[in-house]
Specification:
167 residues; single chain; 2 domains; Hemagglutinin Ectodomain, Chain B; elongated; alpha+beta; Nucleotide Exchange Factor Grpe, Chain A, domain 2
Length: 167
């Protein structure tokens, strides 16, 4: 058959060498890919361990600071069993102040509730007629708190509505 190209033995050998070279390159790339995947998996696991350890250390530090407050609460409860109301009140005030100081040191701040209602930091429970400026906070039902710039709990407030006019 004269139309079919004839492949010489030399050409077949060159093609075989080329195929073998491509297979070797493929095998090398596959091995590199497997090593890279293993390295990434090790990195991910190491990062997760370090993150867990960091969280553990942060929690440990905070809990250590809260232990004296727990002790103060215990003393306040002991005073309550002895019916020493004045000591109980003083103890509770001491515990409250201690806890507030620890939380403030950790970055906790009370949300400001004076002035205009701010939907980013306040939660309006209701609006009631008032002589105050409409839209201003007239009562705080529950304090709100921020940790840094993040609102942990919005302040729950009552907002001044339009005044009622007698007809």
């Amino acid at each position: 058959m004269p139309d079919e190209p004839q492949v010489t033995e030399e050409q077949a050998e060159e093609g075989g060498d080329e195929v073998a070279a491509l297979q070797a390159e493929r095998d090398e790339l596959f091995a590199r890919l497997q090593r890279l995947a293993a390295e990434f998996d090790n990195f991910r696991k190491r990062n997760a361990r370090e993150s867990a350890a960091l969280t553990q250390r942060a929690n440990e530090r905070l809990v250590k600071e809260l232990i004296p407050i727990l002790d103060d609460l215990g003393r306040a409860l002991e005073a309550a069993t002895e019916h020493e109301e004045a000591k109980l009140e003083d103890g509770v005030r001491l515990v409250h102040r201690s806890l507030a100081d620890v939380l403030t040191k950790e970055g906790l701040a009370e949300i400001e509730t004076h002035g205009k209602f701010d939907p980013h930091v306040h939660e309006a429970l209701l609006s009631q007629p008032s002589d105050e400026e409409e839209g201003s906070v007239i009562e705080v039902v529950q304090k709100g708190y921020k940790l840094g710039d993040k609102v942990l709990r919005p302040a729950r407030v009552v907002v001044a509505g339009p005044p009622i006019h007698d007809a």
